[in-house]
UniProtKB/TrEMBL annotation:
Key words, A-Z: Hydrolase, Protease, Thiol protease, Ubl conjugation pathway
Superkingdom field: Eukaryota
Region named Disordered: 19-76
Source organism of the structure: Temnothorax curvispinosus
Gene: LOC112464869
Occurrences of domain USP (ranges): 109-438
Protein name stated in the entry: Ubiquitin carboxyl-terminal hydrolase
Amino acid sequence: MLCDCRDIYQREHKEVIKQNDSDIHKEPLKTDGSSINTGLERSYSSPNLLQLGDRKTPQIDRTSKPHISSRNQNGLGIGNENIKVSSLNWGNREERMTPIHGTVHPGITGLKNLGNSCYMNSIIQCLSNTTNLAKYFTDNSYVDDLNTNNDNTTRGQVVEEVAQVIKVLWRGQYKSISPLDLKVAVGQYKLQFDSYDQQDSHEFLTFLLDWMHNDLKKEAQIPIEMTNAEKEWDKAMNSQRSIISDLFFGQLRSTITCSSCKQASTTYETFNSLTMSLSQSNRCSLNDCMEKFVTGQKVSGWKCPKCQTPRDATKKFDFVKLAPIVVIHLNRFADSGGWLEKRNTAVDFPLTGFNLKPYLVMENTNAIMSNNIRNYNYSLYAISNHYGTMDGGHYTAFCKNATQNKWYKYDDQTVTEVSPSQVKSQNTSAYLLFYTSFPNTIM
């Protein structure tokens, strides 16, 4: 879904600063050296749409995405051979954020619109209110994990820019800041984000999580005995992990069964968000979407390995691994007579008590014992909303602040408190739902 916030930033600043290649910061910047007292409590989990490790840029299926202009849609930005070491210190960096001073509660700072950048602002506010991730950045734990010498990553630059923005959001000193350096950084690695055209927040989140995982990954401890699912997980992850994979990445088991001989073929997929298709009805529940997602679907022309000929089959998904954070993408785009249309279906979603355990399968006794003590009741803590049509609109975020235990609407630089009933009223505009199973992160 696209944003169409016309030149808000330009009207305020007359022009957006565009950096030359020599000014672009590709190496991670020095931190301010301090840990911010935000009141956030850090918690941990043992823990992916994508195969990980030293993976290539994610490939997004744009057939189910809205229209965007043709400028800068494909390809990577500046290569690593053009990377320049940043000389900005913390004071200069904060000044470049053009902050509007004003005392606010930590985490209640807005982000200025740089010109159709509300899709980015919405996602950053959702990630900023992901308590474990915010604490990881504000206490500088990420510094030791940065991969600054790997040519297959952004060499820590994207993580560094995200970290600096989140740190300032949690300082409680500013009403709003400008995330210009972050916008420039992501534009270097995906040219469509370099433009000031309309973009899709789910697409942005997918790339951002992938970049951050690769910037922060390190060797993982591998058990001696593994199930088939665990072996496929280790293969997809290239025996590596990061706080991003720990928090956001899960695993699906896909089973295709031949309707003739009943031969079954099983594969495993990692994901960092779950895309739910919406019906043409005016209203449904999130549980309805989940049931539809895991219910067996008819497949035609599947080449059965036993029959050695195309057969009708049934394909079914099960969850093998669920992350502590589950992001649900409500796909509001559908084909209607050859045309993509936006569906404003009202999806009723729970604020608390979203139980995902019934959709989980365990492949061995140890997994059953482990999953019996894990919490699979999820609570909503953030939403990325889209208002508008296929060709334009606006993004906001509704997030629950961990320290205030209150919901806030983040509309670019404007942040206002909202009630739980106002959150639930976003059922026709909710695009990405962020759920957590951590009991102490939003209450």
